[in-house]
Each structure stands twice: as structure tokens, then as C-alpha cells.
Amino acid sequence: EIVLTQSPGTLSLSPGERATLSCRASQSVSSSYLAWYQQKPGQAPRLLMYGAASRATGIPDRFSGSGSGTDFTLTISRLEPEDFAVYYCQHYGTSPPMCTFGQGTKLEIK
Amino acid sequence: QLQLQESGPGLVKPSETLSLTCTVSGDSISSGIYYWGWIRQPPGKGLEWIGNIYHSGSSYYNPSLRSRVTISVDTSRNQFSLKLSSVTAADTAVYYCARLLWSLRLMDVWGKGTTVTVSS
Fold first, then answer.
1. Do the Cβ atoms of A99 and B37 come within 8 Å?
2. What DSSP string describes chain A?
3. CB B32 within 8 A of CB B14
4. Is A81 at the interface with chain B, CB within 8 A?
5. Do B118 and B19 form a contact (C-beta atoms < 8 A)?
């Protein structure tokens, strides 16, 4: 079973700064099935990135993703006030076919 | 515009069965490229995948919940459902339904979620 570990648990930054969030898999995974979600309090998660590096519809280009194998990164180039939220990485394996989420990184205003 | 709406009891007694339904509007649940899934989130915690189902009935479950979970689909009503048996307080959570684009294994549309509390 694949385990996704996100770091840091909490990231305190100011608007305008750059945020780098990490997602590490316990074994090599396909980047095609690696996604990132944003969740704000009281809301459902929203798809941000898929295929490790592709932005979902309507996601601004200050969000970018990268990585392969076991190490993946979500970068927000210049933080806007609406970006402060919890971010989850997610992978869907093929053998067995199951979905795993990381434990989340909380991005808070410093 | 596609919308998913969860419905069901907000309070379930310990040892009983939790039953939720997700109603899909704005698209057919029989669309061939999507699975339909359930995810939950205990209070203050992260997301946990429960399972997903195709319109044909083909399904996949989280191994940690498989013995207690059944997901079914009703194409005539454009709905899919979750049953979780023998619930305990640990099953208290917000339960989300979502559409899963199978080719990319991503969840692109989510319901707003429904809170289920397990308590006597």
C-alpha cells in the first residue's frame, strides 16, 4: 500500500511570498495519477493539479506542480490571500486500484 | 452544470448501518469515462477514500473498510449510494461524493458534503 507523506504539516507565509509544498510517496508512483487538491474551511476539496504538472480548469498560473517517482512538489509563486488553505496530494494506484491521500499541508498567513 | 448532492441521516447509532445517497444532476451517471466515488473526512482530520463505482456496477474499495462497505449505483435515478455497516464513533465524518475521471484518476467534481455523527 502506498503512503503519501506531505511536508511541512503547517507552512506560515505572507501574501506575495512563494510557497513550496512537498508530497513524498513510500514507493515510486506514476506521475500520471498524482493530483493536488485545495480545501478551504467548510468547503469540499477543489482539484488544482493533475498528472503532477497540469493545472485543472480555472486554476491560475501561479500554481505549478512538478516531480516524478517518489517526490512531488506544489509551488505557488506569489501567494494571494485566497490561497491560504489546506492542500492535499492524492495518488490512485493501479495494482491494487486504490486511492490514497496525503495527510495535508496547512498554508496559513504569517 | 454538473452537481452532486449527498443526502441521508445526519445521526446514526453505534453498530447500525450508515446509508447515504449521491444524486447527480447535469450529466448522466452512465457516462462511460467516469467512476463515482465516496470520500470522508473526520472532524479536524484529512481525507480518506472509501471507494468508487462504475455505472456497470464495477467497484473498488479501500481495503481498510472493505468488509463494511457497499457502494451501489441506480442509473435510472442517476444516483449512487454508500452503505457502511457496524459503525462506531470513528466513522463520524463529513462524507463527500465525487466524480472520478478514470483516465487520469482524478476527482474533478465534488458534492458539498454531509456530516454524519455516530452516537447513541
1. yes
2. ---EEEE-SEEEE-TTS-EEEEEEEEEEE-GGGEEEEEE-TTS--EEEEETTTEEPTT--TTEEEEEEEEEEEEEESS--GGG-SEEEEEEE-SSS--EEE---EEEEE-
3. no
4. no
5. no
With 0-12 / 13-18 / 19 or more C-beta atoms within 10 angstroms meaning exposed / middle / buried, residue B119 is exposed
Residue A95 in this model has a pLDDT that exceeds 90: no
Can you tell me the mean pLDDT for B97-110? 96
How far is it, in rounded angstroms, from Cα A28 to Cα A91?
11
Name residue, grid cell 468508487: B52
> Which chain B residues contact residue A97 at CB under 8 A?
60
Residue A106 contacts B, CB cutoff 8 Å: no
DSSP state of B90: G
Radius of gyration of chain A (CA): 13
B66: pLDDT strictly greater than 90: yes
